[in-house]
Amino acid sequence: MAVTSGYLGSEKAHTDHPEEEHDPRESLMYDPLPRGVMNDMVMESMHTTSWKFWVVLGILAFLVATCFFYAWGYMIAKGLGVAGVMRPSYWGVFLVNTVFWIGISHAGTFISAILRVMKAEFRRPFTRAAELMTTFGLIQAGASIFMHLGRVWLAYWMFPIPNERQLWPNFHSPLMWDLLAITTYVLGSTMYLFLPLIPDLAMARDRSTGWRKTFYRILALGFRGTEGEWRHLTTAMNIFAFAIIPVMFSVHTIVSWDFAMAMRPGWSSTVFGPYFVLGALHSGMGAVAVVLVIMRSTMKHMDYFIRKEHFDGLGKLMMVVSFAYAYFFFNDYIVQWYGGDRWTDTLLHWLEEGPMAWMFFQMVGFNIVIPFLTLWNKRVRTTPWLLAIIGLLINVGMYWERYIIVPVTLSINRMPFTWRLYEPRIEIFLTIGTFSMFLLFYMIASRLIPLIPVWEVQEGQMVHTLRKVGKAQVPTVSEFE
Amino acid sequence: MSDTTLLALFEDIDPAAEAIDKLHEMGVTDDRLNVISGIPITHKMLGRPHPWTNVSRLALGGAVAGFFFGLFLNFGTPYLYNVPVGGQYITPIPPGLIIVFEMTMLFALLSTFLGVFLDSFFPNYGPMEYVGQISDGKIGVFFKVPQEEQQQFSDAMNQMGAESVKPAEARQL
C-alpha cells in the first residue's frame, strides 16, 4: 500500500528531515480538552483583569472622551472650518479613516465566512475575534462619515425617504450606493457576529451569577441547544456565510467607486474595485494578526486556543493577499504611468518626488516589500511578535495608501492654481479618538463576550482524529454536517 | 395515566444514539423525544427525523421582497417627483443593479436572522427543561413516559450508559 512510504513516518524519514517532524497534538484540533474545562478557561480569561488592564482602559476612555466626543462636539459647534479640509482637498482624513476602518472590517468576514465556506479548520478559535473587529471597525467607519458630513444632524437627508417636496434621494449617486452598502454590511456583519455567539452566551449564562447572569440570560434568548435550535442556527449561519461574502466585496468596491467614478487623475481606474477589496483584506488580516498576538499575550489560557499553527495559517494568508495586492497595485500604477495623460503624469511624479514621497515609498515598502521578504519564512510566520509587527506595518502602509488616494491625490488636479497640500488639523485628534474607541470597545468586549467560540472548537476537535496508517499517525478530518 | 418527562444525560454521542434506539424499541415515538446538546449533532448521528426549518424559505422570501424594494427605490421613486436632467436617463439600469443587489441581500440577511427567532421561538425566558451540564458537552435526551413506567425506562437508560436519569425540571433560563 502506497501509504507505507517514508513520508508517513518511517525511521529513515525522521532521521533525514528532523525539521519536518510534527506532532499532530501540537495542533488545537488534535489536543482536545473536556468541554467543561475549555468553558472554564474561556470564562476565566474573561474574568481575570490586572491593574494594567484598568489603566489602559482608563487612558483609552479619557482619549475617547477628549479626542472623540469633545473634539467632535467642538467641530460641530464651530463648523468644519476647524478641520483642514478646504479647496482642493475637500475630502480629508475623515474619508481616509472611513476607508481604513471599512478595510479593517473586511477581516472578520473574510476569516469567518470565506474560511467557513472553504472549511478551513484553523479558523475555528479566532473567527469571533475577527468578527468583533468587523463590527467595531464599521462603527468607526460610520462615525468618520458622520464627522465628514459636518452638519451631522442633517444625515437623515440620505435616508431613503422623501423630503417635504416628495423628492427622494438620488439613487444614481455613488454616495447613496455607499450608504446602502455600508448599512447592509453593518447589519449583516453584526447579525453574523451574534448568531454563532448565542450558544456561547448560553454557556456563559450557565456559569455566571449576579449582573453577568442577567446580561447573558437576556442575550442568550433562552437558548438550550435543542435539535431544532441547532438546525435553525446552523442553517442561518450557512446562509450568512455565503451571503455576506458578496456583500463584503460589494462594500469596498462601492467605496472605491466613490473615487473611480470621478474623472480625476489618480482616481479614474477600472481596477479600483478589486484593488480596494484586496487592500481591505490586506489591512484586515494584518490587524487580525496584531489582535491575536495581543489576546494571546494578555489574556489567560489563550495560548491553548491560539497556537503557532494559527499564526502560520494567518501568515500564509497575509502573504497571498500581499501578492494579490501587489498585482493590483502595479496594474493600477502601470496603466496610469503608461497612459501619458499630462495631469496623471504630474501626479505620479509628485507622488514619487514631491513632499509626500516618503509616504508613497513607505506604503510600497510596508505593503509589498516587507511581507514579500518575511512571510515566506515559516519561522517568521510562527513567531507571534514578528507577525504582529508585520501586521502593524501593513496597517501603517495601508493607512498611507488611503491617505495618498484621498487628500494627496486631490491636491493635484487639472487647475494648477488651486494646488495645495492638505494639512489635517482637528482631524488628528478625531483620528486618535476613533482608534481609541475601537480599542476601548475591543477591551470591554474581551471581558464581556467569550472571544473563543468554544462550541466551534469542540465541534472541530470531534471531527479531527488521528488515524494510524502504517507506523504513522495521520491527521484526518471527517465531515460532520 | 399521567406522563412524566425524564432526562437522561450522556457523555458521548454513541451511547446517546443507542439509547434513542432503545427508546424507540420501548415504544417512545419521536414526537415524545427531544435531544439537547452543546454542539450541533445531526439527526443522522442520532437516528432522528430531519428537523424542519423555515429559515431558508424565509431568507428566500426576504430576498424577493428586497429585490422588489430595490426596484421600487431605483425605478419607482424617480417618477414620484420627476426631475428630468438633459442627457440623463430617469431610471438608468446599471446603478439600479447596485441598489437592487444591496436591498436583496439586506432583506435576505434580515429575514434569515428573524427566521431563527421565529423558528426557535426566541426570545424565550420562561421556565424550560434544561440542565447546565449541556453547555459542558453532555448530551441530554428528554422523553415522556407514563409515570408508572418511569423506573423501567430509567433502568434501560442506565444500561445504555446514561450518566444520570432523573425527572426533568423546568428552570428559569
Overview features:
heterodimer; A: 481 residues; mainly alpha; two-stranded antiparallel sheet; 2 strands; globular; disordered N terminus; B: 173 residues; alpha+beta; Alpha-Beta Plaits; 2 domains; 4-stranded antiparallel beta sheet; 5 helices; rod-shaped
Please, could you describe this protein's structure?
The complex is a heterodimer of chains A (481) and B (173). Chain A has 481 residues and is mainly alpha-helical. Chain A has one domain. Helices cover 69% and strands 2% of the residues of chain A. Chain A has helices at residues 11-16, 35-47, 51-78, 93-117, 127-149, 174-206, 210-220, 227-260, 272-298, 302-305, 308-339, 342-353, 357-374, 378-381, 384-411, 426-448, 454-463, and strands spanning 464-469, 472-477. The longest helix of chain A is centred in the middle third of the chain and has 34 residues, at 227-260. Mean pLDDT of chain A is 91; it is low at 1-15. Chain B is of the alpha+beta class and 173 residues long. Chain B has 2 domains: 3-39 and 137-172, Alpha-Beta Plaits (2-Layer Sandwich), CATH 3.30.70; 55-120, no CATH class. Chain B is built from 5 helices and 6 strands; from the N terminus they run βαβαααββαββ. The radius of gyration of chain B is 25 Å and the shape is rod-shaped. Classes of the chains: A mainly alpha (481), B alpha+beta (173). Chains A and B meet through helix 2, helix 6, helix 7, helix 8 and helix 17 of A and strand 2, helix 3 and helix 4 of B.
